[in-house]
Amino acid sequence: MRINRTIYLSLLIAISLFFSCRQKEKAPDVSGIQVSVAEKRFDRDFFSLDTNQLVQGLQRLQAGYPQFLPMYFQAVIGSAEPDEVKLFLQQYRFVYDSAQRVFGDMKQVKADLEKAFRYVKYYFPAYELPHQLVPILGRLESMQDLARMDNGEYTAAFMGPDMVGFFMQFYMGSQYSVYHSEEFITRVAPLYRSRRFSKEYILPDIMKQIADDIFPDKSRTEPLIVQMIEKGKRWWLVGKFLPETPDSIITGYTGKQLAWCQANEGDSWSLITRNEELYSLEPTVIQNYIGESPFTQSLSQEYSPGNIGPWFGRQIIRKYAEANPKKTIDEIMKMPAEQILEGAKYKPR
Fold first, then answer.
1. pLDDT at 24
2. Domain that holds residue 162
3. Less packed terminus of the chain by CB within 10 Å, N or C?
């Protein structure tokens, strides 16, 4: 019997809702934990510079951002020369104006960040949290200019001295006209990626930076299964920091892709193990399961997401944590991937 596509998609969504409800844990009460984040609008301070008195303005800006401004010049503009700064201000004024319409009020972002930080403090009391939230504007020409985490992934969120922040130009909303230009799609980000360039992804991206700061991912040269589990650990940890955030936002998958993963977990895992790919060190094999792509080549090209490896890794972590309730988050995060795989006895159906 053939099931038409509409019915199939409806079934996938129903399955997704069932599993998301089943896997949600009760979050701890963090209301008594004191956390404070100061909002520093570097974007406004920078773009309010008077280009007719730029040297004096840059001196004042340096006083307000003594550690950050040199980093911004080097990483974003590529120069601290006033002429180069002036050119950047002129070229990106239109992006800044658009950003102000999206980020005119940062109160909700700040409040959500403080709430997430309370969970960080609950689980890791000794961790020194950043105290400033700094939105900035960078270039649109390349994702390669962005912050790079220890696991090699590029992200539009970043950490600096006592601060977290984000590149506003990559969170303008998926319908932002620049994202749909042929040049941007070809040179910077295809549509399957830019659909995530929205405000709701700011917090998960920042918290992935926090997770990577607490537990740096050093698995880049390890076999596929180790990378799956290590990256899955960090998704799992981010879920602890953001217990109310939908799984689709943490994973970056669409609802249909997430539902497909859950409905086809057993078959997909069997295929991976049958092909003897778990212990591969081959870059092309690893890239098939870990990394940006519209789908996973060896699985469904219509429904599967790219970067499916961390999802399987997180499933293994969840299985292990469920079987070992006395293990703390810190202990699980520090545990070797091979030990977790053995202890999880992961055999999805």
1. 62
2. 38-214
3. N
